[in-house]
Amino acid sequence: MKLIDLYVYEVTRRLPLKIREDIALELHSSIQDMLSEDSTEEEIKEQLTKLGDPAKLAHNFTGRPTFLIGPAFYEHYLSILKLSLIMTLAVVLVTQIIFSLTSISGEIDPGSLLLQTLFNVVGQSFMVGAQLFFWMTIVFAFIEKSGVIPDSSPQSGARSRWSPDDLTHVHTLPKKKRITKSKVIWNLIWTAVLAGLYFNASHLIAVFERVGIGFKSSIPVFNEEVLLYFWPFVILLIAIEAALAVYKWVLGQWTQHLALLNMARNGIFLAFFAAVASRPALFNPAFISYMQEQLGQSHAELIIGLQWLCLTSILTVILYTVINSYEGIKKARLNVTRLLTP
Amino acid sequence: MSDLFASLATELRRGTLTLAALSQLETPQYGYSLVQRLEKSGITIDQSTLYPLLRRLEKQKLVTSSWDTSESRPRKYYVLSSYGKQVYAQLKGEWLKTSFELQQLLEGERQNEAY
Predict the structure, then answer these.
(1) Chain B residues contacting A via beta carbons under 8 Å
(2) Domain assignments of chain A as residue spans, ordered by start
(3) Which of left, alpha, beta for A318 (phi over 0: left; psi -120 to 50: alpha)?
(4) Which CATH architecture has domain B17-114?
(5) What does the alpha-carbon distance between residue A55 and residue A13 come to, in Å, rounded to a whole number?
(6) pLDDT band at residue A316 under the 50/70/90 scheme
(7) How confident is the model at residue A214 (pLDDT cuts 50, 70, 90)?
(8) Are B59 and B78 in contact (CB under 8 A)?
(9) How sure is the predictor about A151, in pLDDT bands with cuts at 50, 70 and 90?
(10) Which of A64, A69, B39, B79 could share a disulfide with B28, CB 3.0–4.6 Å?
């Protein structure tokens, strides 16, 4: 009797709460049906052996797939992962070299600098690579589970079932509607570069001084505290950008849905940019006084100048997002079938 | 060789289990009574497959279920729904057609061998 309870428990603990009780009850009565009124432990064991491994039985009940990323997306997953890992390596290498060049101060000898740079490159590649792997896997698992992108051949986009017509669509897709893989890669590289710039702004966007054979960043342009204050939003933007890139990669062409998502992404970016650019404390006070000395202007004049600069850049970004969103919609509207008929 | 045969045979039988189960559910059955009925006609079905199969059929609205608590032990009974009856009739027709075709194919093979 106790064996049966244990067996039923072993099965049901692997099931969703909702159906647990019902299956437990049914399984209990089914097992007892198989046994005679007073069966020995041997008989019970024999019957339980017939039912087999509780884990397997539970799996049969849920019928849930036991994979994270199925065959429909696995190929995409692998190729995007490989590509982005290579890109990450490249970006880390470049930023680290710049970083090393800008941090040269007379005393360090070239050998130890090289060693230090190499060490940083390996360490950062590992960190960023692990992050990338983690997020890519999450994004793909989400795509798999949610069914956002229909399970079909990648070229056919929203089509639910493959037909030979798709073959002709691939080649006759107007160039503008198509999203080439290289475009997606450029998107990702830009995202990585901009993110790298943002988080290393205090080293990279600064007034440089000549020191010996290299340069040394001495006065950061931006107030680091203000930039770091926004870091969760930057991470969110990067995640959105990465997800959108994956979506574009898999779709391979502009669709209405993608155009809408693109517009939403632009809106979020615009909001973020405007929020950062309109911060009064955005610029480093030391940088402002440095500029005052250089240009010979008063503090108030300079502040007004910087405000104009911010306003202009916000307007530029507005213009860019509007144009970019409109282009997306235009590309999505391009009609494939009309172009197919001669 | 025998492993391969076993896996091929399982594959061959897999699709027929649904049909076999549906055929016995015109009258209400509980899990174990269904097992016995199937075994009596020579169909062995893994019980770890059958119970989940019944649940799946219920989820697909081919059968309905109800608990009978009047006896000493509560039992869950399954019976074909009207939709299930329709699907069963179609499947049955499909099976008869397939098995007829296959039989002709296999018997043709035997005749060829005779020549």
Answers:
(1) 30-33, 46-49, 51-52, 55-56, 67, 73-76
(2) 2-62, 71-340
(3) alpha
(4) Orthogonal Bundle (1.10)
(5) 10
(6) very high
(7) low
(8) no
(9) very low
(10) B79
On chain A, the residues whose CB falls within 8 A of the CB of B51 are 26-27, 30, 57, 60-61
Centre a 10 Å sphere on the Cβ of residue A209 and count the other Cβ atoms it contains.
12
Which strands, in side-by-side order, build the sheet including B75-80?
A: B29-30, B75-80, B63-68
What ipTM does this complex have?
A: 0.80
Max Cα distance, chain A (Å): 103
Contact between B47 and A51 using a beta-carbon 8 Å cutoff: yes
Does A61 sit within 8 Å of B51, measured CB to CB?
A: yes
Which tokens hold the place of A330? 């235009």
pLDDT in tens, B11-51: 888 888 899 999 999 999 998 899 989 999 888 888 888 88
Measured CA distances, A91 to A9, A188, A203, A239, A242 (Å): 52, 11, 16, 17, 16
Per the CB < 8 A criterion, the answer to whether A161 and A229 are in contact is: no
Q: Average of pLDDT values for B46-61?
A: 89
